[in-house]
Design goal:
By secondary structure, the protein is mostly helical. About 70% of the residues lie in helices and about 5% in strands. α6 crosses α9.
Length: about 150
């Protein structure tokens, strides 16, 4: 029963949300939020900031998303720079969107073979761990984004 529920949560609900977004029945970004929430349960530890756990580190390396991000790092960081981010929460959200938006580049990254050989995984899980990795790469360059700004 648990496997059926997990499969439903990881495949059917995202498909429904995507259709609802396309029809304007839910706001854009709902699917991304759902994907991140589900993936964080399995692949991250902590609250804020999220850190990849052992399973997340495994997925990051084995899925090919780490290599994909490392190979496209300059382009991905430029896309984040264009957003003129001022806080870590927005960075975390935008890192997911930037990784998610590169569908054409992902086609050649080998994710489909990985997913075929690891049917318990989803593209959403791979994008989630990749977005945390990309967020951390951005923070290496912009540690100031973690500092809270004072109103005084």
């Amino acid at each position: 029963m648990a496997n059926t529920v997990n499969a439903f949560m990881e495949t059917v609900i995202p498909d429904l949300l995507e259709g609802f977004e396309d029809k304007g029945l839910v706001k854009k970004g709902t699917l991304s939020e759902w994907t991140k929430t589900v993936a964080a349960e399995y692949y991250a530890k902590g609250q804020s900031p999220l850190r990849l756990n052992e399973d997340g580190e495994w997925l990051l390396k084995e899925s090919g998303i780490k290599k994909f991000i490392d190979d496209a790092l300059e382009i991905l960081l430029t896309r984040l720079e264009e957003k003129k981010l001022t806080n870590a929460l927005d960075l975390e959200d935008e890192a997911f969107r930037v990784v998610e938006e590169n569908e054409q580049e992902r086609e050649v990254a080998g994710f489909k073979n990985f997913l075929y050989n690891n049917p318990e995984e989803t593209i959403g899980n791979i994008l989630f761990v990749g977005s945390i990795y990309l967020r951390d790469k951005y923070l290496e360059i912009h540690p100031e984004i973690l500092k809270e700004k004072s109103d005084t």
